[in-house]
Amino acid sequence: MGKQAKGYIGRSVLRREDDYLLRGKGQFVDDLPVLSGQIFLGFVMSPYAHANILGIDTSAALALPGVVAVLTGEDFASLSAPMLTEIGFDGYKSNSRPVIARQKVRFVGEHVAVILAESEYIARDAIELIEVDYEALPAAAKLETAFADDAPLVHDHIENNVMFRAAFSTEKFDEAFASGDLVIKERFRTGRVAGTPIEPRGCVAVPDHVGDSITLYTSSQIPHIVRTGIAKHIGCPESRIRVVIPEVGGGFGTKAQFYPEEIIVAALAMKYRRPVKWIQDRREEIITNIHARDHIYDLEASVTSDGIIKALRLNLLTNAGAYSSYPFGCTLEPTGGARMLVGPYKIKHYTYEARAIATHTCPSGAYRGVAQPSCFMAIEGMMDRIGRKLGIDPAEVRLRNIIPTKELPWVNAVGVRYDTGSYEECLRLAMERIGYSEFRQQPRGIGPDGKYRGIGICCFTEISGTGAPGWRARGLIRVPGFDSALLRVEPTGKLTIHISHANSGQGHLTTFAQILADQMGTDVENITVIEGDTGATPYGTNTFASRSAVTGGGAVIRASEKVAGKMRRIAAHMLECGEMDIELRESKAFVTGADRSVTFEEIAQTAYSMNSFTLPEGEEYGLESTNYYDPPLATMANAVHIAQVAVDPKLGSVAIEKYAVVHDCGRVINPMIVDGQIQGGIAQGIGEVLMEEIVYDDEGQILNANFLEYQLPTALDIPNCSIDHIESPTIDAVGGFKGVGEGGVIGAVPSVTNAVADALSILNVNVNSIPLRPAYVATAIRTAASGAN
Amino acid sequence: MKIEGQNCVNAPKQVVWESLNDPEILRKALPGCEELRQIAPDAFEAKVRAKIGPVSARFTGSVQLCDIDPPHGYVIVGEGKGGAAGFAKGSARVALTVQDGQSPQTIVSYQVDVQIGGKLAQIGARLIEGAAKSIADEFFRGLTAAIEADRPETSKAEAPSESAAPESDVVQKAAALMPPWLFGIAACGTVALLLWLAV
C-alpha cells in the first residue's frame, strides 16, 4: 500500500475505533451483560450542604421486597478507610472524606447511605424510603466569602477554610515591579463548570469463582490509579483486583478522579460475593462528579509605557469544594493556574500567592485544561487592557512581550523549560487567517445590523506529558508520572502492544499503532493495541493532562527499540550476517543492500522455538519487552486562537463569526485526530464562556443540576474553525510529540472572552468574568449605559 | 425563591375564609393531600402525595402560623420534607380581599418566599414556579367546586366578624389554610419527579 515509504506518523489514518463506535457497537459499562445474582446500588444523597446526621431510619427500605441491605457511613467504616489525598506541600491542610458520610455532610449530593437491591428499580424505590434526620447547619458556599473570619468551617481543623496556600516570588521582585511606568490591575472571575461527559460514570464489580478476587469494570481514565486506590482503601492486595475500562463515553478529566463509588462497588462485591452494579444518572453526575474553575485571579502588571510587562503579581483563589479530591487534591488548580500564567511571554519577574478555599460544595478536580483556560483568560485579558490603556493594538502588545523562537530554549519564571516552540509564528499566522488587520481597519462601534463586533486573541502554552518531576513539583504523590508499554511479537509475527493508558475517545488504538508501525517497519493492520486493563497492561499513570502521546508514545518507542533490537539479532543469526546490516521494513528483516530477508513470522517462530533455527547464544525465548517512560518535568505545546464575535446588545447574545487556530503540538501523529481534539476543546470552551454555569445559592444548594438549565453548546453554537499546524518537535522528550488534548479549551475561553470584551469596550463595559450568558451581557451593557448617564 | 400568585374564588370573603378552615374541603381540593394534623396549638403537619406515572413521593410539611388576621390573612412559616426529593422551607403570606362586582368574589393572593433544597432545588426555580401556579389554579378550582357543593346557599354568608371566633378556634381554622404553602411543596415534588423521569 506504499504507506511504509512515507510512514504512518503525520498521516490522517482513519480511526480504527470509529468502525464499531459509529455502528453503535461500543461496549460501555452499562452494556455489560447482566450477570446472574447481580445487585444494584442506589445512593441516598444529602439534600443539605452542611448538616449533622442525627439518625438514619432504614427500616422501611429494608422491609421492601428485593432490598438486600442498606449500609450507612457507620456501617461502611469497617469496609473502607476514608479517602485521604496526600499532598507533599507544607501549605496543604490534609482532610479526609468518609466513603459514605459519617455524622456530618459537607455538600449537597454527598452519600449518606447505600442501598443494595435485586434490581435498579427496587434500589430507586428504596431510596425514597430511607428517612434521614438532619440538623441543618450554616454553609460556606461562595468562594468570595468562605475564607472570612465568620464563615462556617468545612473542616474544623482548617482555619478560615484555607485548604491550601502556596506563595512564590522571583528574586528582587519588588525592585522589578517598581521599575515599570504604570501598574494595571484587574480581577478576573471564572464560572463554575464541569466536564459533563455524555456517558455518566458507572461500575460493575464481579467476584471470581475462587472467592478472593474481583474484576472492576469502571468508566474511568485511570485504571491503575483506581486499582491502587481500591487496594489501599479496602485493605486488599492489588493482585486480587483487576480494573477493566470498557468504552468510555467522554472523560475530560471528570473520570480522571478516583471516586467513592468505585470503592463501594468493589468492597460490596467482596463482601457479598455477588456482582454489584451502579450506574449514575445525570443529576448525580452533575452534583457529585468533580467541578472546576470557580477561580478568582487578582492580577497586577507593572508595565512600561511601550507595553512591556516588567513584573507580574498574582493573587489566586480557587474553590476546592468540600474535600480534596483524589488523586489530584485541591492543589492542582491553584498550582496550575499560578504556574502556567506566564505562558509564552518574557515575564521574568513574577510573584504569586495561590489559595484553595474549602466550601460546602462538590469537590473540584481536574477538568480539561485544569486552570489554564482561567489563567490565560487572566493574562490574555491583561494584555488587552495594557493595549487599551496605552493605545497599542492588543496583538502588538503580545508581539512585544512574546518569547521569540530564537531565544528558545527558555526557562520561565517558575522554572519550567520551554525547549522548542513557535509563539510568534503562531500569532502571525493566526492573525493572517482571521483577517486581523482588515478587521482593525473597519470602523468601531455598532454595525448596520445593530451588533457590536470584536476580536479576541489567546496566545498560550499548554503543559503536557508531565513526568514525575512535574507532579512532585505540584505536590502530588499519588500521580506517578511515567507510563509504560509491553510489546509482544506473537508467533505469527503480528504485534500486540499493551499500553498503560486508557482510551476515552482520543483514538489511541490508531495513533499508538501508527507510532509502532513506523518504529517496527510494519503495517498498522498487523498491530493490536490493548489498553485500559490492569490485568493486561503494565503499571502507569494513565490518561489525562494531555499526556498520552508524550508518555505512552515514549513508552511505545522504548519498547519497540528493545524488541526491534532482538529481532535484528535473531534475523542476523538466521541470515548469517551482522546485526548492524539488518533493516526492518515491510514486516521483514532485510540484509541491507542484499536481496535476502526473513519475515517477522519466521523471526518469531525462531524466538518461540517453533522452527529448525536455534536462538543466538545467550538470547532468551520469547519476543517481548516492557518499558517505562518518564518524560521530563513538562513538555510545552503552544497555540494561538483568535475569535471574532458579534454581540447583540438588546439580547445580550454572542455569536462567533470567525475562528482561527494555529497550533503547535510538536510532531503530529495524526492531523485528523489533532484537529478533532482542537475542535472538541473549542466547543467545550465556547460552552464555558457563553453558556455553562453550575449555580449554587448561598446555602450551598445546586440550582440547575439538569441539562435544561446547565446549558451545553450544540453544533449550532460552534463555528467552523480554521486550523493550521506548525510543528516544533520537542527535543526533551522521546518521539518529539507534545500534548494536544486540552489546547482547544485553553485557547477558546480567553479568545472568546476577549472578543466580547473588545466588542463592548467602546461601551465601557468591563468584561472580566465568565460565563457571558445573555442575561449577564445584557445587564452589563445596561449598567454601563446607566453609569455613563 | 419567590413565588407570587392570586386566584379568584366565586364566594364572599367570609365564606372563603370558613371554607378554607374546613379540613375536609381542603383535603378534597388539594390534589394528593392525605392528612392535616394539629401537633401543637399553633403548629401543624400535613402530608401530600405527588404521583406521576410509576413514581410517587410523599411530602411532609410542618408549619407555624403567625400574624393571623381573620378573615383577611396570615403568615405561614414552615418546612416541608420530601425525603429523597429534598426539602423546602420559608414563609407564605396569604391575603384575602374582596373583588367588587355583581356577584361576590374573593381574591386569595399569596407570596411565598421559599428556600428549597436537594432534588427540588436542582430542578430549577423557573420550572417550579410555573408548576406551583398550575397546582394553585387547580386547587382554587377545586375549592370553588367544593364550596358550591358544600354550601349551595352562599348568600347566607354573614358579614365578617373576626371577634366571633375564640382564639384557639381561629388558630385551628387558620391551620387549615396551609394549602398555598403546600402547593409549593407539592408542585416542587411534581416537577422534581417529572424531571427525574426525564433524565
Structure commentary:
- The complex is a heterodimer of chains A (789) and B (199).
- Chain A is an alpha+beta fold.
- Helix content of chain A is 29%, strand content 24%.
- Chain A contains 21 helices and 32 strands.
- In chain A, the strands form 9 sheets. In chain A, strands 3-7-1-15-12-13-14 form a 7-stranded mixed sheet, sandwiched between helices. A 5-stranded mixed sheet of chain A has the order 9-19-18-17-10. In chain A, strands 22-30-31-32 form a 4-stranded mixed sheet, sandwiched between helices.
- In chain A, a hairpin with a 5-residue loop joins strand 23 and strand 24.
- In chain A, helix 17 crosses helix 18.
- Chain A is globular.
- Chain B has 199 residues and is an alpha+beta fold.
- Chain B contains 6 helices and 7 strands.
- In chain B, strands 1-7-6-5-4-3-2 form a 7-stranded antiparallel sheet.
- In chain B, strand 5 and strand 6 form a beta hairpin.
- In chain B, helix 2 crosses helix 4 and helix 4 crosses helix 6.
- Chains A and B meet through helix 5 and helix 9 of A and strand 7, helix 3 and helix 4 of B.
SSE diagram, text form:
The complex is a heterodimer of chains A (789) and B (199).
Chain A: H1 3-6, H2 16-22, E1 39-45, E2 51-57, H3 59-63, E3 67-72, H4 73-76, E4 83-84, E5 96-97, E6 104-105, E7 111-117, H5 120-129, E8 131-136, E9 162-169, H6 173-178, E10 182-189, E11 193-194, E12 202-207, E13 214-218, H7 223-234, E14 241-244, H8 260-272, E15 276-279, H9 282-288, E16 291-292, E17 295-303, E18 309-321, H10 332-340, E19 350-358, H11 372-390, H12 394-401, E20 410-411, E21 417-418, H13 423-434, H14 436-441, E22 452-464, H15 468-473, E23 483-489, E24 495-499, H16 508-520, E25 527-530, H17 548-575, E26 582-585, E27 588-591, E28 597-599, H18 600-607, E29 624-629, E30 635-648, E31 653-664, H19 671-690, E32 722-725, H20 743-760, H21 774-788
Parallel strand pairs in A: 1-15, 13-14, 18-19, 24-25, 31-32
Antiparallel strand pairs in A: 1-7, 2-6, 2-8, 3-7, 4-5, 9-19, 10-17, 11-16, 12-13, 12-15, 17-18, 20-21, 22-30, 23-24, 23-29, 26-27, 27-28, 30-31
Chain B: E1 2-9, H1 13-20, H2 23-29, E2 33-40, E3 43-52, E4 55-69, E5 73-81, E6 87-99, E7 105-117, H3 119-123, H4 125-150, H5 167-175, H6 179-198
Antiparallel strand pairs in B: 1-7, 2-3, 3-4, 4-5, 5-6, 6-7
Helix pairs in contact in B: 2-4, 4-6
